[in-house]
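Changelog note: in this version the structure field was regenerated for every chain. One regenerated record is shown below for reference.
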Amino acid sequence: MSQGEASRSRLSIAVGIAALAAPALHSITDMLEWYQGGFSATQLWLNYIAFLPMPWLLLGLYTVRQPRPDVSGLIGALLYGVAFIYFAHTTLYAITEQVPTYEALWARLGSLYTVHGAFMVLGGLMFARSALHAGWLPRWPLVLFASGIAVNLLVALMPAPDMLQTIGSTVRNLGLMAMGYGILFKRPHAVVKVW
């Protein structure tokens, strides 16, 4: 194995582990928030830890998966990353200001939070579309990821309790975890171009 292949292999392992662990921990913190009826210091610190790898996660997937998606996939990965840099900041803000609930956090941050939510939706959908178009297999993790983002968007546009965002987040996270599992434990599939 060449030095470049070994380096790529280590990066694949790091991306695969991050794609399994960070979304799983994020989903656990969502369940804790729902169970507790709001934020707690422990839940928020765990959420922050879950958010630390998220800004580079799609960029890592873009880098280690073959065939590489087109430039819209790269732009999508970057937009998704920018959103999660901000979301990590909002977690620290909630800890510092002792914000009790997601609804209270959103009320304080309002339009800036909404803009970054739009970055997450747009970036995630661009990435998923590009990876599907590139022929990534299996396709179902990408469809699951995109479906979770679509649920997040629909819940944001409807008059529904904000806690329902956890449904979309959980579906999105399951898609990311399946991609991580695929990187770590599955042999690459043949490429099937779509569109």
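Spot check on this record: Residues 3-185 form one domain. Residues 83 and 116 are 5 Å apart (CA to CA).
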